[in-house]
Design goal:
The complex is a heterodimer of chains A (112) and B (113).
Chain A lengths: L3 E4 L2 E4 L4 E8 L5 E7 L6 E7 L2 E5 L6 E7 L2 E7 L7 E8 L7 E2 L3 E5 L1
Parallel strand pairs in A: 2-11
Antiparallel strand pairs in A: 1-3, 3-8, 4-5, 4-9, 5-6, 7-8, 9-10, 9-11
Chain B lengths: L2 E3 L4 E5 L4 E3 L2 E3 L4 E8 L5 E7 L5 E3 L5 E5 L4 E6 L8 E9 L6 E2 L3 E6 L1
Parallel strand pairs in B: 2-12
Antiparallel strand pairs in B: 1-4, 3-9, 5-6, 5-10, 7-8, 8-9, 10-11, 10-12
Classes of the chains: A mainly beta (112), B mainly beta (113).
Chain lengths: 112, 113
């Protein structure tokens, strides 16, 4: 299995909703990442988990809450989002910095 | 801190013509360099990477890139493009020993039939 699987592929949520994005990999990678990508822009790093511990938080608002239940799973809990949070949310994993990342196909989030 | 510059936001190329997508980086320490491709409504796929050694790196789909330390460049090339190469291409850099990957602003490659 050489893939990163993200669910759901599309999500529409209201500003008062609570939802979660899920990411799964079975490649034994030690690090997992959440990126946010706005249209026609590069991905922006949000969080990094290394060996299931949060190692980098790029000053992301608290309405985004990451969770790493085990070495294969990464969740992003969403609460009280704003319309400007609408974007493609990408999950990635890597074994080591030198190997590059494997990205999932993303969750297209729309906040209404 | 490291940074990446992709000077060309859009590159139109005729089908079967060669293409070069430019990437320059800035870092005071050793780096790893990557090129990723993103097709519409998809995630990013690794095309190739430079870690060390030979400065000419070959990747998937017929792409190659050349690392030039003196010019701090890592340009991507393909000798003959196809319609299927239409996509957004991102150059990225990571500092050796650091997990964070920094992306350039991307270059949209459009193939003209």
């Amino acid at each position: 299995d050489t893939e990163v699987t993200q669910t759901p592929k599309h999500l529409v949520m209201g500003m008062t909703n609570k939802k979660s994005l899920k990411c799964e990999q079975h490649m034994g990678h030690r690090a997992m990442y959440w990126y946010k990508q706005k249209a026609k822009k590069p991905p922006e790093l949000m969080f990094v988990y290394s060996y299931e511990k949060l190692s980098i938080n790029e000053s992301v608002p608290s309405r985004f809450s990451p969770e790493c239940p085990n070495s294969s799973l990464l969740n992003l809990h969403l609460h009280a989002l704003q319309p400007e949070d609408s974007a493609l949310y990408l999950c990635a994993s890597s074994q080591q910095d030198r190997y590059g990342y494997t990205f999932g196909s993303g969750t297209r989030l729309t906040v209404v | 801190a490291q940074s990446v510059t992709q000077l060309d936001s859009q590159v139109p190329v005729f089908e079967e013509a060669p293409v070069e997508l430019r990437c320059n980086y800035s870092s005071s320490v050793s780096v790893y360099l990557f090129w990723y491709v993103q097709y519409p409504n998809q995630g990013l796929q690794l095309l190739l990477k430079y870690l060390s050694g030979s400065t000419l790196v070959k990747g998937i789909n017929g792409f190659e890139a050349e690392f030039n330390k003196s010019q701090t460049s890592f340009h991507l090339r393909k000798p003959s493009v196809h319609i299927s190469d239409t996509a957004e291409y991102f150059c990225a850099v990571s500092v050796v020993g650091n997990e964070k990957l920094t992306f350039g602003t991307g270059t949209r490659l459009t193939i003209i039939p």
